[in-house]
Write a structure and sequence with these properties.
With 323 residues, the protein is α+β, with helices and mostly antiparallel strands. Helices cover 34% and strands 15% of the residues.
């Protein structure tokens, strides 16, 4: 019999749509769809998955030289599960990437990612994936929070490199017109005590030091005569509860900083914080009265009888205990 008598099993001619070659009606459930006289055979899902993941991911190395640069990008990009990579080498959309992230402490992390958007003349937007993404980002955030202040972010950060060794430059060089930024930590000027270093700072330097400085820097700046510095100390991500307890009872602190403490649900779980805010004469009265409900009955009775608190607070305490 000739070859024409045995058509290919992957391409069967049909008499008309919905019938077989012998004129029989197509039974429901038969694998494949027959359109325009041909049968299309779909590959199993497992086979398609294997075909999609046979290409090795592109390896990209990111290296941060300054903590301030990492903190900037973490707040704006990394914490949202992705980032913009300013690559000169184009990558296809949906291509897989393996990011080698190196931070200033020397620690390195590997993050799986996928290109979700190609932005002409800017780079590619990638989205992180993989089961360990949350743990990796939490570890990076923890190190960045406890890191010392190291000046303004470096415009060249992060340094990018392609390939397993990360040798080839992938990011455009920094603008030549920009002079090198002074990365000197204003709290580490050689030969000066810390208090003199802080006194020699400008207002902007004090705000940056308050936002990123270590504990001894925070305790000095919260006493600074320029009260606009105080809220930046409260915003410092490394500030501890015992520091908050001390600040809450300082009458020289900016009322806005005290209001920030009283509005934080985590800090106001501490009876010491609430007690100190209520007794502090600079705490706004509505906030102090609101915090009375968080004090134990013994503290309320003491406030109701005390002559050292403001009258409105004393009357509110008496009302709460039924005097």
């Amino acid at each position: 019999m000739s070859a024409l008598a045995h058509p290919s099993p992957l391409l069967l001619p049909t008499a008309r749509h919905g019938t077989t070659a012998r004129g029989q009606r197509q039974k429901p459930g038969v694998a494949g769809r027959r359109r325009a006289g041909r049968t299309r055979i779909r590959l199993p899902t497992a086979s398609r998955t294997v075909m999609m993941h046979t290409v090795a991911p592109t390896e990209i190395h990111l290296r941060y030289s300054r903590w301030s640069s990492l903190a900037r990008d973490f707040r704006a990009q990394l914490s949202h599960g992705g980032m913009l990579l300013r690559l000169q080498t184009p990558l296809a959309q949906f291509s897989r990437i393996l990011l080698h992230l190196a931070i200033p402490s020397g620690a390195a992390f590997e993050i799986e990612a996928e290109v979700v958007q190609v932005i002409p003349s800017q780079g590619v937007a990638v989205q992180f994936s993989g089961p360990r993404v949350r743990d990796i980002l939490a570890a990076v955030e923890a190190e960045a929070r406890t890191a010392p202040f190291d000046g303004e972010p470096d415009p060249a950060d992060p340094r990018l490199g392609l390939g397993p060794a990360g040798d080839s430059a992938a990011s455009p060089p920094p603008p030549p017109a920009s002079p090198p930024a002074t990365a000197e930590d204003p709290t580490e000027k050689a030969g000066l005590p810390l208090i003199q270093q802080i006194e020699s700072m400008s207002v902007d330097e004090k705000r940056r030091a308050a936002l990123h400085g270590r504990r001894d820097v925070r305790l000095l700046l919260i006493r600074d005569t320029n009260k606009t510095i105080h809220p930046f100390v409260i915003k410092n991500p490394a500030i501890t509860l015992d520091e908050i307890e001390q600040i809450a009872k300082m009458p020289g602190v900016n009322p806005d900083a005290l209001r920030m403490i009283g509005s934080n649900l985590e800090w106001t779980r501490s009876a010491t914080v609430c007690r100190n805010l209520v007794h502090n004469p600079k705490t706004p009265i509505p906030l102090a009265i609101q915090l009375l409900s968080r004090l134990p009955p013994g503290d309320l009775r003491a406030l109701a009888k005390s002559s050292h608190v403001r009258t409105a607070i004393q009357q509110a305490a008496r009302k709460m205990i039924g005097l």
